[in-house]
Write a structure and sequence with these properties.
Length: 414
């Protein structure tokens, strides 16, 4: 099977609207949380989120075109343009029959769906729907629009595995390239869930933090006082291609995709297995796929959403996989970005790639009293970034329904 490398990345996040600003926010330990501006949240249990800042899609997309796309598709297009630019791609010189798009989104056009249904409910029952309603809403449309925009005729689909979605997309893209089904694939994920339906639904599920008085520190993974996750939004794009293809076109190589593992918790509708059985299986499968040992991993970007049950189950799985290992840096970047749901795996993969490139581990912020059973077993990278040579980085993502996806990136070994 062919080796697969990352040649471009693009990010649109609550910490910054491009990769450099996103990374600067991460290593500075910046919180992306703020009061919700997208709608009047005054009567909601949670009134804050990690929204994009100083973002105007019309700076990137023509107004007439933007009207045809839900926010999640707009986000996907914008982060993808950055990744294409960073990868120095000129599609006119490449075989576009061998270039595909595998995208991910957990909710798709939830905002479009909400707006159209609310508009209908205000009327007298006469159906008056936007002709773009269905194509704006359906979850696969971002991958379709990216391929149409650039004339890419290779494999094209969208994965959905809740909060494991974009990690699943990355693993699928990795597999299609190494199986020889494509030379290059644009992959990643986008999510735009900050609206009445998204916040209200997760509030009803008792998944969100309600720490409205101290929202900057509400996302506190591993902390004994954590009370739920903070909603985030945005997009992350990775350009994956075969090593030979990248070398032939003189592409910048940022990292190698070493392996990927997927599994099912088979336990609960929304909760993770209390002993982390699924998480362990995902990490084990990824290491076996990569031909690596647990001791080879320098950095684990944990799923760690800041929920009472989820964080502990992941740490139990990590202890089972790595042992009590203080040389392993673990960090929860959701403490800064919030939880981007289906896009989380994409931006956290980018965090892993930057950690490899820069030799810096982004921190876990806000955690003041870590779970005593694990406080001394791992280096949770509390409070501030740490310099460290990172040869191998692992990224965990877990989703409602028991979906597990773990990806591994490594420094290129020519």
């Amino acid at each position: 099977m062919r080796r697969v490398v990352v040649t471009g990345i693009g990010a649109l996040t609550p910490l910054g609207n491009n990769v450099n600003d996103f990374w600067a926010g991460l290593i500075a330990g910046k919180s992306g949380a703020a009061p919700i501006t997208r709608f009047d949240a005054s009567k909601f249990k949670t009134r804050f989120a990690c929204e994009l800042k100083n973002f105007d899609p019309l700076n990137h997309i023509e107004k007439a075109e933007a009207r045809r796309y839900d926010l999640f598709t707009q986000y996907a297009l914008i982060s993808t343009e950055e990744a294409i630019k960073n990868a120095n791609i000129d599609f006119s010189t490449l075989n576009k029959d061998r270039i595909g798009v595998i995208w991910g989104s957990g909710n798709g056009g939830i905002n479009t769906f909400q707006d159209q249904v609310m508009e209908f409910a205000k009327g007298d029952g006469t159906p008056r729907f936007n002709p773009f309603f269905i194509p704006k809403m359906i979850v696969d449309i971002a991958s379709g629009i990216i391929s149409i925009k650039h004339g890419l005729r290779g494999v094209n689909f969208t994965t959905v595995s809740a909060c494991a979605t974009s990690n699943t997309a990355i693993i699928d893209a990795f597999n299609y390239i190494r199986w020889g089904k494509a030379d290059m694939i644009i992959t990643g994920g986008s999510e735009a869930p900050i609206n009445e339906s998204g916040i209200g639904g997760f509030n009803a599920a008792k998944a969100l933090s309600t720490n409205n008085d101290n929202y900057l520190e509400a996302s506190r993974p591993f902390d004994v006082n954590r009370d739920g996750f903070v909603m985030g939004e945005g997009s992350g794009t990775l350009i994956l291609e075969s090593y030979e293809h990248a070398i032939k076109r003189g592409a910048p190589i940022l990292a190698e995709v070493a392996g990927g593992g997927m599994a099912g918790d088979a336990y609960h509708l929304t909760g993770t297995h209390p002993d982390g059985d699924g998480a362990y299986l995902g990490m084990q499968a990824a290491l076996e796929d990569a031909g690596l040992q647990a001791s080879d991993v320098d950095y684990l970007n944990a799923h760690a959403t800041s929920t009472p049950t989820g964080d502990n189950s992941e740490l139990k799985a990590a202890e089972r996989m790595f042992g009590a290992n203080t040389s392993l840096n673990v960090s929860a970047t959701k403490s800064m970005t919030g939880h981007l749901l289906g896009a989380a795996g994409a931006i956290e993969a980018i965090a892993c790639i930057k950690a490899i490139q820069e030799g810096i581990i982004p921190p876990t912020i806000n955690t003041k009293e870590p779970e005593p059973a694990f406080a001394e077993k791992f280096n949770l990278t509390l409070g501030q970034a740490q310099k460290k040579t990172v040869n191998v980085a692992m990224s965990n993502t877990f989703g409602f329904g028991g979906h597990i996806a773990t990806s591994i990136f490594k420094k290129l070994d020519a």
